[in-house]
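Hi everyone,

Forwarding the result from last night's run.
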Amino acid sequence: MPALTVPDLTVLPRLADLGPDTGATERGVRRVTTAPRGFEGEGFPVRRAFAGVDLADLDPFVHMDQMGEVEYAPGEPKGTSWHPHRGFETVTYIMDGTFEHADNHGGGGLITNGDTQWMTAGGGVLHIERPPEALVASGGLFHGLQLWVNLPRAQKFVQPRYQDLRAGQAALVTSPDAGVLVRVIAGSVDGHSGPGSTYTPMTMAHASVEPGAMLHVPWDAEQNALAYVLSGAGFAGAERRPVSTGQLVVFGPGESVRMAAAEQQDARYPKLEVVLLGGRPLREPVAWGGPFVMNTREEVMEAYTDFRAGRLGAVPADRVPHAGASGGLRTS
């Protein structure tokens, strides 16, 4: 899992040392769930990270897939066909491999190790993502994450936009003992801000925790707090709740979050790799139908009608051979 690595963590800025005298209330663990496996798009394997979790605990997030980790043979890499979205944002973070993105508003490009594509569907967009032809021919390792961030009611129909966030733009910080590499992609962690521009106040960070090390960070009390284990074994919260690959931690209220790596790790996963997420809840009704996330069922049905009538636009002429949009796809 290369993502973005730093050979010497001691050169990085340090997070605050949250000792017992800070007065910050640490968040306890409310629940731990295990992501079931499935398939998405043209058949690439995923873990459904939020399966079984109430939307009220996830708000403003609605869906997340861990894509892979999978080692493709030549000819095997898969993606999605053209498909629509409305009413939310998709955040695609690639740790291994390469994905090619394009939409009918001119957004897109290649994202690879540690890059992030932030696509705001807003009022409606057609979109495709797939491995480039060279990767299809060669095969190779692929591992990524896709998060769906809900848009507030007042911004459901904003103009679509695309943010191409390169790995080197992420804010890089380490723990007081230099045992953790934290990549801040969006929001702020202890005053260190990531490059992602968000409609909904939120935080997204990827932490690599060395065996036996601990990450204890201040957390915005107005945001919820989630931790998803990409790989490895460790503990969540002061109560040291055991967690491992493919598990989601839902934290309760408070002002700091703690994750620790187990002393012994599996040989394949030498560190605890965890994505930290937080967002200010919208507390609005959610009506979710396939690729559309709206506030009412009527708005979802209207989105399907608009898509079928071509009001979400057309596939660019130079991409027509890859058309075949699928209105029921969830990944984008």
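The longest helix spans residues 297-308.

Cheers,
N.
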